[in-house]
Amino acid sequence: MNRRKKKKQQNVDYIELIKQKWSSIDWSEIKDKIQQNWNRLPKLHQRALMVLAPIVLLLLLIPFPDSKQEVTPSTPQRVEIDINTSGLSEQTIAGETELTSKEWQEYEVKSGDTLAQVFRSNGLPMADLNALVKVEGNDKPLSYIKQGQLVRYKLTEEGKLDILQLEKSGQSVMFFRLSDGGFGRSK
Protein backbone atom coordinates (compact mmCIF):
# COMPACT_ATOMS: atom_id res chain seq x y z
CA MET A 1 0.00 0.00 0.00
CA ASN A 2 1.42 3.33 -1.05
CA ARG A 3 1.15 5.92 1.67
CA ARG A 4 2.86 8.82 0.08
CA LYS A 5 1.59 12.15 1.01
CA LYS A 6 0.09 14.22 -1.68
CA LYS A 7 1.63 17.57 -2.31
CA LYS A 8 -0.62 20.48 -1.64
CA GLN A 9 -1.62 22.27 -4.80
CA GLN A 10 -0.53 25.86 -4.94
CA ASN A 11 -2.91 28.48 -6.18
CA VAL A 12 -1.54 29.92 -9.41
CA ASP A 13 -2.52 33.39 -10.51
CA TYR A 14 -2.69 32.91 -14.26
CA ILE A 15 -3.44 36.53 -15.01
CA GLU A 16 -0.27 37.62 -13.23
CA LEU A 17 1.66 34.91 -15.08
CA ILE A 18 0.39 36.20 -18.44
CA LYS A 19 1.32 39.77 -17.51
CA GLN A 20 4.89 38.67 -16.71
CA LYS A 21 5.25 36.79 -19.99
CA TRP A 22 3.83 39.77 -21.92
CA SER A 23 6.21 42.23 -20.31
CA SER A 24 9.21 39.97 -20.95
CA ILE A 25 8.67 40.09 -24.74
CA ASP A 26 11.12 42.34 -26.53
CA TRP A 27 8.84 44.17 -28.95
CA SER A 28 11.59 46.20 -30.59
CA GLU A 29 13.35 43.02 -31.72
CA ILE A 30 10.09 41.65 -33.23
CA LYS A 31 9.43 44.98 -34.94
CA ASP A 32 12.92 44.95 -36.49
CA LYS A 33 12.45 41.40 -37.83
CA ILE A 34 9.06 42.27 -39.37
CA GLN A 35 10.50 45.40 -40.97
CA GLN A 36 13.45 43.47 -42.44
CA ASN A 37 11.10 40.90 -43.98
CA TRP A 38 8.80 43.66 -45.25
CA ASN A 39 11.67 45.45 -46.97
CA ARG A 40 12.67 42.24 -48.76
CA LEU A 41 9.29 42.16 -50.57
CA PRO A 42 8.95 43.86 -53.95
CA LYS A 43 7.07 47.18 -53.96
CA LEU A 44 4.13 45.67 -55.86
CA HIS A 45 3.69 42.97 -53.21
CA GLN A 46 3.93 45.52 -50.42
CA ARG A 47 1.18 47.65 -51.98
CA ALA A 48 -1.02 44.60 -52.62
CA LEU A 49 -0.66 43.51 -49.00
CA MET A 50 -1.50 47.04 -47.79
CA VAL A 51 -4.78 46.86 -49.72
CA LEU A 52 -5.72 43.21 -49.24
CA ALA A 53 -4.93 42.82 -45.52
CA PRO A 54 -7.54 45.40 -44.35
CA ILE A 55 -10.12 43.96 -46.75
CA VAL A 56 -9.60 40.45 -45.40
CA LEU A 57 -9.85 41.73 -41.82
CA LEU A 58 -13.09 43.54 -42.63
CA LEU A 59 -14.55 40.45 -44.26
CA LEU A 60 -13.68 38.40 -41.20
CA LEU A 61 -15.29 40.90 -38.84
CA ILE A 62 -18.47 41.76 -40.78
CA PRO A 63 -21.37 39.45 -39.89
CA PHE A 64 -23.13 37.87 -42.82
CA PRO A 65 -26.87 37.00 -42.89
CA ASP A 66 -27.86 33.42 -42.29
CA SER A 67 -27.83 31.67 -45.66
CA LYS A 68 -30.73 29.39 -44.64
CA GLN A 69 -33.13 32.32 -44.59
CA GLU A 70 -32.38 33.37 -48.17
CA VAL A 71 -32.76 29.95 -49.78
CA THR A 72 -36.04 29.55 -51.65
CA PRO A 73 -37.45 26.08 -52.04
CA SER A 74 -36.62 24.55 -55.38
CA THR A 75 -39.41 22.00 -55.23
CA PRO A 76 -42.81 23.06 -56.51
CA GLN A 77 -45.32 23.94 -53.82
CA ARG A 78 -48.79 22.41 -53.85
CA VAL A 79 -51.65 24.83 -54.17
CA GLU A 80 -55.18 23.90 -53.18
CA ILE A 81 -57.82 24.76 -55.77
CA ASP A 82 -61.54 24.28 -55.64
CA ILE A 83 -62.74 22.12 -58.58
CA ASN A 84 -66.25 20.84 -59.18
CA THR A 85 -65.59 17.12 -59.59
CA SER A 86 -69.18 15.94 -59.85
CA GLY A 87 -69.95 13.99 -63.03
CA LEU A 88 -71.22 15.84 -66.08
CA SER A 89 -74.37 13.72 -66.20
CA GLU A 90 -75.03 14.51 -62.52
CA GLN A 91 -74.71 18.20 -63.26
CA THR A 92 -77.35 18.12 -66.01
CA ILE A 93 -79.64 15.79 -64.01
CA ALA A 94 -79.49 18.12 -61.03
CA GLY A 95 -81.09 20.78 -63.24
CA GLU A 96 -78.10 23.03 -63.49
CA THR A 97 -78.24 25.53 -66.29
CA GLU A 98 -75.86 25.46 -69.20
CA LEU A 99 -72.41 26.84 -68.66
CA THR A 100 -72.43 30.61 -68.80
CA SER A 101 -68.72 30.81 -69.49
CA LYS A 102 -67.88 30.84 -73.18
CA GLU A 103 -64.41 29.52 -72.37
CA TRP A 104 -65.68 25.99 -71.65
CA GLN A 105 -66.50 23.79 -74.62
CA GLU A 106 -68.21 20.40 -74.71
CA TYR A 107 -67.93 17.45 -77.04
CA GLU A 108 -70.04 14.30 -76.94
CA VAL A 109 -68.07 11.20 -77.94
CA LYS A 110 -69.43 9.48 -81.03
CA SER A 111 -69.21 5.80 -81.88
CA GLY A 112 -65.66 4.77 -82.76
CA ASP A 113 -64.08 8.03 -81.56
CA THR A 114 -60.69 7.97 -79.89
CA LEU A 115 -59.39 10.81 -77.78
CA ALA A 116 -56.80 11.57 -80.48
CA GLN A 117 -59.67 12.05 -82.98
CA VAL A 118 -61.49 14.27 -80.47
CA PHE A 119 -58.36 16.40 -80.10
CA ARG A 120 -57.88 16.64 -83.88
CA SER A 121 -61.50 17.49 -84.63
CA ASN A 122 -61.57 20.22 -81.98
CA GLY A 123 -58.18 21.70 -82.91
CA LEU A 124 -56.53 20.82 -79.60
CA PRO A 125 -52.73 20.43 -79.52
CA MET A 126 -51.55 16.83 -79.69
CA ALA A 127 -48.62 17.72 -77.40
CA ASP A 128 -51.19 18.36 -74.66
CA LEU A 129 -52.69 14.91 -75.24
CA ASN A 130 -49.24 13.35 -74.85
CA ALA A 131 -48.72 15.26 -71.59
CA LEU A 132 -52.14 14.11 -70.34
CA VAL A 133 -51.38 10.46 -71.04
CA LYS A 134 -48.31 10.68 -68.75
CA VAL A 135 -50.54 11.43 -65.73
CA GLU A 136 -53.52 9.30 -66.78
CA GLY A 137 -53.33 6.74 -63.97
CA ASN A 138 -54.19 3.05 -63.75
CA ASP A 139 -57.94 3.44 -64.44
CA LYS A 140 -57.12 4.82 -67.94
CA PRO A 141 -59.96 7.36 -68.34
CA LEU A 142 -58.33 8.83 -71.45
CA SER A 143 -57.74 5.48 -73.16
CA TYR A 144 -61.24 4.09 -72.67
CA ILE A 145 -63.70 6.77 -73.76
CA LYS A 146 -67.16 5.56 -74.81
CA GLN A 147 -69.98 6.71 -77.05
CA GLY A 148 -72.18 9.33 -75.40
CA GLN A 149 -69.51 10.34 -72.89
CA LEU A 150 -69.09 14.09 -72.43
CA VAL A 151 -65.67 15.69 -72.81
CA ARG A 152 -65.52 19.24 -71.49
CA TYR A 153 -62.44 21.41 -71.91
CA LYS A 154 -61.19 24.94 -71.43
CA LEU A 155 -58.36 26.57 -73.40
CA THR A 156 -55.76 29.13 -72.34
CA GLU A 157 -55.41 32.43 -74.16
CA GLU A 158 -52.58 30.89 -76.18
CA GLY A 159 -54.86 28.10 -77.41
CA LYS A 160 -53.37 25.37 -75.25
CA LEU A 161 -55.48 23.02 -73.19
CA ASP A 162 -55.99 24.35 -69.65
CA ILE A 163 -58.55 21.96 -68.12
CA LEU A 164 -60.04 18.72 -69.46
CA GLN A 165 -62.98 17.02 -67.73
CA LEU A 166 -64.15 13.48 -68.55
CA GLU A 167 -67.00 11.51 -67.06
CA LYS A 168 -66.38 7.85 -66.37
CA SER A 169 -68.79 5.53 -64.53
CA GLY A 170 -70.70 8.44 -63.00
CA GLN A 171 -67.45 9.97 -61.76
CA SER A 172 -65.78 13.02 -63.17
CA VAL A 173 -62.04 13.02 -63.83
CA MET A 174 -60.30 16.35 -64.34
CA PHE A 175 -56.90 17.10 -65.78
CA PHE A 176 -55.51 20.59 -65.28
CA ARG A 177 -52.38 22.42 -66.38
CA LEU A 178 -49.72 23.01 -63.73
CA SER A 179 -47.50 26.08 -63.53
CA ASP A 180 -44.54 24.10 -64.94
CA GLY A 181 -46.49 23.34 -68.14
CA GLY A 182 -47.30 19.71 -67.30
CA PHE A 183 -50.65 18.38 -66.16
CA GLY A 184 -52.09 17.19 -62.87
CA ARG A 185 -55.08 14.96 -62.26
CA SER A 186 -58.03 15.20 -59.92
CA LYS A 187 -60.53 12.39 -59.31
Automatic annotation (TrEMBL):
Domain Opacity-associated protein A-like N-terminal, chain residue ranges per copy: 38-64
Name under which the protein is recorded: Lysine transporter LysM
Domain Opacity-associated protein A LysM-like span(s) in chain numbering: 103-187
Coiled-coil portions: none
Gene3D superfamilies in alphabetical order: 3.10.450.350
Keyword Membrane: yes
Single GO molecular function: peptidoglycan binding
First and last residue of the signal peptide: none
Record key words, sorted: Membrane, Transmembrane, Transmembrane helix
Keyword flag Membrane: yes
TM ranges: 48-65
